[in-house]
Amino acid sequence: MPGQFEALPGGGAAVALDEVEISIIRSLAVQLLELIGPGPAEDAHDDPLAELFAEGPSEPPKDPVLLRLFPDAYSDPEGAPTAREAEERRAYSSEFRRFTENDLRAGKRDSALAVIHSLDAPAAAGEGGAVLKLSADDSRQWLGCLNDLRLAIGSRLDVVDEEDTDLLYRLPDEDPRKPMVMAYLWLGGLQDSLVATLMP
Q1: Within 13 Å, how many C-alpha atoms sit on residue 79's CB side?
Q2: CB-based burial of residue 55 (10 Å sphere; 0-12 exposed, 13-18 middle, 19+ buried)?
């Protein structure tokens, strides 16, 4: 079925995408890469110990999309915490972020690059679109990237829960957010079909 992932024998998934769909996914993945930012400098790879002990940021990102992609590990519980509890949670989150965010960013970069590379492959470059055949590993990277794209777009649309998603279906056609909403919903369908192919 066009636009839906289907399981391949032996693992992996295939999807038929037209030129416009390929262009949209590729453009969104490139924008995601730009948002996440570059990886460590090339010379950092020459020193494995430096890479091992490299610390990430300790403060949460200011951009709400990046904060959605890299949330605090210790969020505030229900109810009002005491000042001491709030300060402890901030300290724990800061420490966790410092030692994990670089790896999280690298994983998200790798997934976005895997999507771009598969879309740029000669098999995907034909006129009218292509049928992409992904290995099980590539499928998981696609799943991660689709999830990140939906989180990023959902953040821009102020989608917090299922109720917010339901409201998106009722937006009038003249609403300027409509193209972003259509991309968000379409990516959700792709993501759901890919999840179904990867389930045992």
Answers
A1: 3
A2: exposed
Tracing tokens 């990886």 back to the chain, one arrives at: 39
The alpha carbon of 84 is separated from its chain's Cα centroid by a whole number of angstroms, namely 34
Q: What are phi and psi of 15, to 5 degrees?
A: -145, 140
User: Could you tell me the strand order of the sheet in which 6-7 lies?
Assistant: 6-7, 13-17, 130-134
Contacts of 177 (CB under 8 A, 6+ apart): 157, 171
Task: Look up residue 154 and give its amino acid.
Answer: G
Residue among 13, 9, 61, 11 at smallest CA distance from 192: 13
Asked whether the beta carbons of 2 and 131 are under 8 A apart, the reply is no
The structure tokens listed for 154 are: 């959902």
CA distance 82 to 98: 24
pLDDT digits (tens, 9 = 90+) for 42-101: 445 566 655 555 677 778 889 999 999 998 887 766 666 788 888 888 888 888 888 889
Model pLDDT for residues 121-136, shown as the tens digit of each residue: 866 555 677 889 999 9
Type of residue found at 35: L
Is residue 139 within 8 A of residue 197, CB to CB? The reply is: yes
Q: Which DSSP category does 39 fall into?
A: -
